[in-house]
Amino acid sequence: MADRFDCDNCKESLYGRKYIQSDDNPYCIPCYDSLFSNTCDECKELIGHDARELFYEDRHYHEHCFRCFRCDRSLADEPFTSQDDALLCNDCYCNEFSSKCVACDKIVMPGTRKLEYAGSTWHEGCFICHSCEQPIGSKSFIPDKDEHYCVPCYEDKFAPRCSRCKKVCWEKHSNFGVSARRLVGLTLLTYFSIKALAKGGVTYRDEPWHKECFVCTSCKTQLAGQHFTSRDENPYCLKCFGSLYAKKCEACSKPITGKVKLLYFILLVTFGKVRKKMLEYLRRLYSWFTVDYSYWLCIIVKVRGYFKYNLKKR
Question: Which residues, if any, are the signal sequence (predicted)?
């Protein structure tokens, strides 16, 4: 009598039937599938021994069940990704989750080089200078409203230049993680005074100057942060202007440089006789609307001396 050749699980004879051997034990096909086959995560049915099985993140699938959640395309031989446990082909994932290039309005595919600035995204080749139309990449650039310029183009078109040396005034800064530069913020002048900027420049008569270029026309002393005045639109330090152009005080013969507005002035003379020279002083006081502090001081000294002399004389 021939030896028996039975299924190790159901004990039915395997003579004339297909079987699969596992760990040196033979199994009929139904028993093998029930004992060793995985369950498809999509349809919840067994993946038979003769079916192509796909495996992803501890999950098993029939080949025909491994499909895009959105478009139902087979992912068996296609690149894909997973979003919230849902399988998506690259096209569906990009359309739903990837950003679009603001220049060409096309999807920025995962893995491609891109640039992000101010909440917008560009393909690397689409982020170009508005003037020369060359890709900016990671180089320095200057944003101007909705346009972006490489540094050389912006300097040629817009950068303020020092009124003396004609070179641009820059200070560097970082901007949203992208290399960038910005113009020095220029502060407008008030009457014959100037505010020096922290790095690189000042403004005089609405024109930019480098701090080291803004000097006295006569002695070449830097005027940034200093009081100064001008003549024929040329700046002068107070000392040089006083010695060259300022009127001289008739009382002390010194230059009159600082100015102060006189709102009104009333002088009462309560003494008897007033000399002719004193009348001349009074006439000047009434006719002037702006006078120098030093001039007033000289007048007061003269008047005080005059009355002191006359009182003693009486």
Answer: none
